[in-house]
Amino acid sequence: MTEVAKAVAVLDLGLRACTAYDRPDAAARLTAAREALADPVMHVVVAGEFKQGKSSLVNALVGAAVCTVDDDVATAVPTYVRHGEKPEAHLLFAAPDPEPPRRETIPISDVRRYVVEGGENGGNGSRVTGVEVRIPRKILAGGLVLVDTPGVGGLASPHAAASLAAVSMADAVIFVTGAAQELTRSEVDFLQRARALCPVVACVITKTDFYPAWRRIRDLNEQHLAAHCPVPLMPVSSALRSRAVKANDTALNAESGFTNLVKFITDQIGGNAADRLAADAAAEVIALCDQLDSHFQAERTALSDPEAARRVVRELTAVKSRVETLKSSAAKWNQTLNDGVADLTADIDHDLRARVRTVIAESDAAIEEADPADTWPEMEPWLQSRMADELLANYNMLRVRADALSERVGNHFHEASTALMSRPSVHNPTPMSVVADFQHKIDLQRMRVGKQAMVALKNAYGGALMFIILGSLVGVSLGPIGIGIGLVMGHRGLREEKKRQVQRRRTEARNAIRRYCDEVVFVAGKDSRDTLRRVQRQLRDHYSRLAEELNRSNAQALAGASEAAKRTQAEREQRLKDVDAELERVRKLRQRALAVIG
Amino acid sequence: MSLIDRTRVLLDHALPVYRGTEHAARLAAVRERLDAPLRVAVAGRVKAGKSTLLNALVGERLAPTDAGECTRIVTWYQDGHTYQVQATPNRGEPRALRFSREDGAIDVDLGGLNAKDVARLVVTWPAKALRTVTLIDTPGIGSLSEQNAQHTWDLLVPEDEETPADAVVYLLRHLHAGDIEFLRAFHDTEVSRPSPVNAIGVLSRADEIGVGRLDSMASARRIATRLGTDANVRRLVQSVVPVAGLLAETAVTLTEVEVAQLRRVADLPVRQAEELLLSADRFVNAMPELGLTNLEREALLARFGLFGVRLTSTLLRREVATTATDLSRELAERSGLTQLREIIGSLFVERSDVLKSRSALLALAETTRVCAQPGGEAVAAAVEEILASAHPFNELRVLSSLRAGWITGKPDVVTELERLIGGSGGSAHERLQLAPDTGAGELTAAAGQALARWQRRAENPMTTYEMAVAARVAVRSCEGMLAGLGQPR
């Protein structure tokens, strides 16, 4: 039985327990986990330099011409290729926060019009931020979403940073390089950074059909990768694969090298993601077991003798008020969250401003050294890519710090809640089942804690937002370059005049750069504030819900204990047997859930 | 007196002024250069295919096309009576080097010299193509990403400086125009800096753009045309043409043996040939009954590339060309080499007097600026007079201002101006956009109309100042054409 199937079975048991023990609140959580497990979404970002065959690779993988391939024009917006019952295509538009992106259905044959550079915009003039294509394919059925990233500008441009932003949200990255030459410095750099951001990275050499020397290139690349970033390397030929799919030619398919790639995607990428989802689901069940366990332990203690029952009721009543506090804004976790987000907002903003200042200083120095009339065409892309790098660094800082904050909030919450929930079990005569299990539980909670911030960030960025931010900033205009008639006349006597003009151009260039940087700070600043606000909301809602669950669990325990106090001796003995049986069931459920995590 | 004669006279006059100074030798060299063939450099980033293209232009495999010791040194290929290779070290006298020819390419024995200490190699080789131009192979600037990226623009040399080459062919790989790497191709400024006056762009490795499909060159042509209209490219080079370098080199060095080998492929039924040429691996290994050994097949791939093998076998099958000579011509045409040669002819060779004078005068101006000598001021004034008054220079200046977007106007007006001042070739029919075989009468009539049109534009008070200056230059160009056609105004 696969991990996923085990996890589904455990979840179903958990759901039945929820019905049996009247816990609709917990059932909602388990149902969500079950849905995620049934419909897993794994984003695989296909990235690489301009014209290395990214779109061809995606097309060859799914065996259909879903991404536009052109000799010259590059893909300009990300294309998401995923499973669907029948082929269909949607345009995605940016929507004001917090609405989901607006969609518009288009015929598949029209996709080309929107995804290439200089392509059309949507019906009412809003910007297309992505295209989603759904086709029925076995390879995609497991929830795989192939993301064909724009190749505009290559890795030395702002779009590289945007690709990295997309990579940081992805489950896996397939990096594409042609067999024409060995990996370049910027490609290796990109791979290294991608590897730091994403758990699964693979490098694919394309166009092996065209370059006779691809084996030499592969060997060279293997050396480079071994030295700088050890990731698997797979040579493929999209042309051969496409032909093999069309002709249903298994031998040719093997020759194309795609069998390895498909195996890698299904085993490594699909398998990994499924395992993670299964572990998440099992952790949800374990959390439920914890609550049920403490509830029945409390009732058991209460049943053992009337004196204990009164004490337990007293304690549980005290816990009730403490749980109320945990829900309120005065709770420590809530304060940590509010203060943390405020601090983080200020820090991120300061970091951004500091970075932009560095960029301005560097540009000023560069402008001072040369005539902007000569260097501006190069200065502009340089500035954009420099800025994109800084934005990415700033955004990474946000990501890391938000994760840390989320963990801190989670720890505070769990400290408080564990203290609460473990009180009744102090008098528990039976020892905790296994101490190691308890440790394990903490680790799991940590894991889920970290995820909360990522969920918020994923919702915020979706990998595509960086493209939008940078896209809206393209175009640093210098204004008309004032070149006087001196150049037309060519008189040396105008040397002084020329010098004056250079000075004027420098001033203009400096002003243009400042305007651009202002705009960047404005847009990016707003974006990170919004993101943090979303993170805050997400965390608050998550832990409030948990507190509510604890409250309910505690209320049930209290009811059970109060009832126990009223029971007769015979009834008590009878109930004690029942509770022991329930405890045994919960223990078994927990063991099964633990088995899924392995 | 023509421009080059005026330059010659001026240099002859300047030589005694600077005799005995450190600049004397340099000026003598400048004077000699006036009577030597035009110097054209092949520049671009590493791995752009410079040596391959140079071989194609010479028509012989001279430059080693693998990363050897020689390609790390600037190498000059010039015409001469004997075969010899000379090294000019950074310090010390030039010395002759021993060399051998292996597999066509020249293998030079540096004779104990370190490649870093050699300023340049001069290969003297009797070849027809080298009689009109001296070709300069450059090592190409290396990967800049290893240097500090923000200082890339330092590499641009200041304006108005003497450069070793009179004209440059820049090799560009197909990169996105938004890519900084793209513009860096023009940073190879060791021999000359790009200017729309003396530089053209070549979209190299054109066969790779369509990944070897038979219509790859059509794709490449479309891309080259688009690049040629890109504002950033226009201000650096005159036009961009696509060249499949490897195929061009093979075209001019094609052997009958190779044709016979490829004919075996061409004789296969279409479907089988297609299967065989599906991938490079298949071509080497599949179909042992073809009668070619693996080594022969690998050699064919190395010479033609997969695109070349596909194209050549198709040409043979369709009997577009049947002999090695015909095939050679056809491949030169299809690889873009013929077009490149034509463009070099019309933009560089025809204008070589102007380009050479320009190099010489820039060098002389530089000397007068840095070295004060009695009589130097008179030389400086004379240089300035020629630079400012010679009509060809005014044309070039207007041309670069147009290309840089400093002179603006209605698109059709700007296009006509650019052509009239010789932007697409110096001959009268090219300037007037008429067929090459147009009669003198028709040319005269057209030139007269253009003259009247541009005179009106120059005098129209609504014309912008820049455009008026440019229009006056155009008027002079028309007058020059009329004078050349033998019709007094």
TrEMBL record, chain A:
The keyword Transmembrane applies. Keywords: Coiled coil, Membrane, Transmembrane, Transmembrane helix. It comes from the Bacteria. The keyword Transmembrane helix applies. Residues 44-194 form the Dynamin N-terminal domain. Residues 499-556 form a coiled coil. The chain crosses the membrane at residues 464-490. InterPro entries: Dynamin_N, P-loop_NTPase, TRAFAC_Dynamin-like_GTPase. Gene3D superfamilies: P-loop containing nucleotide triphosphate hydrolases (3.40.50.300). PANTHER family: SARCALUMENIN (PTHR43681:SF1), TRANSMEMBRANE GTPASE FZO (PTHR43681). This is Dynamin family protein. It comes from Actinoplanes aureus.
UniProtKB/TrEMBL annotation, chain B:
The keyword Membrane applies. GO terms for biological process: mitochondrial fusion. One of its GO terms (molecular function) is GTP binding. The keyword rRNA processing does not apply. It is found in: Membrane. GO terms for cellular component: membrane. Residues 40-171 form the Dynamin N-terminal domain. Pfam families: Dynamin_N (PF00350). Keywords: GTP-binding, Hydrolase, Membrane, Nucleotide-binding. PANTHER family: SARCALUMENIN, TRANSMEMBRANE GTPASE FZO1. This is Dynamin family protein. It comes from Actinoplanes aureus.
